[in-house]
Amino acid sequence: MENKIYIFGHKNPDTDSIGSSMVKEILDRKKGTNNVEAKRLGNINKETQYVLDYLNLQAPELLEKVEEGQEVCLVDHNEFNQSVEGIEKAKILSVTDHHRIANFETSEPLYYTAKPYGCTSTILFEEFKNNGIEIEKTEAVLMASCIISDTLLLKSPTTTEHDKKALAELEKIAGIDVNKYGLEMLKAGTDLDDFSAEELVNLDAKSLDKNGSKFVIAQVNTVSIEDVLKRQEELETAINKEIETKNLDLFVFAITDILNSNSEVIALGKRVDAVEKGFDKKLEDNKMFLEGVVSRKKQLLPVIDKNI
Ligand code: MG
Ligand code: MG
Ligand code: MG
Question: How far away, in angstroms, is 150 Cα from ligand 3 center?
Fold first, then answer.
């Protein structure tokens, strides 16, 4: 049996991590590499489930860890602490990503595509185009969904002209009305009711390191910040538990209003000063309202990272 090459996105996978893994598998097969298989590093969230249901597709299989020498392709991440267990000893064939590069090292040469676009799928879209490979409906819906998710329907400041152009073309191939489909999809992801507080703070959490400081920025999307804040007390208990068990210096939990493009953040830990200094604002009752802030990557992480 031929050895499989695994393709996967980050832990606590979002729509781009799942969708882009699946799209890269399709693209690689169309290019003639058949021993590729999309995997996932965690549970499928409700937004992504909406996409899979729309296409009547199964989620990729869960990958718990990789053995030494396993051939892998990373999408939508590069930092090892966001990747699979055993990544240090895997053979990374390629990275396709739109994040900062940090905590990443290989012993062998690799393909590395990094573009400061709003979404990994936009990079893949351009790979289809540049290779003259046909985009069919399935991958069009997947890529459109990833772009809608990562850019919050092109409203996030991470959005580039490349994302807009890709989404306009994918909309036609997918045969969807992007605004209607996109809002339904995003709304599906804001249904947080049946998650425990522990699940909520881990749903879309990213671990980060800076000069020996360990911090997490987690994010949930909502159509009502107020609704989520009703659970502030239990959320804080869950966050404090994370801080204690993972020995974190800071935990930032961003509750993002996808309709009005604002966020309320709850910040706990001994380095909350990094948040206060970064945004030049005091936390009140452990929280702070950030007008116009929706992007972890562009608006939260750099500010906190600089001040921690
Ligand atoms: Mg992602
Ligand atoms: Mg992404
Ligand atoms: Mg995201």
Answer: 5
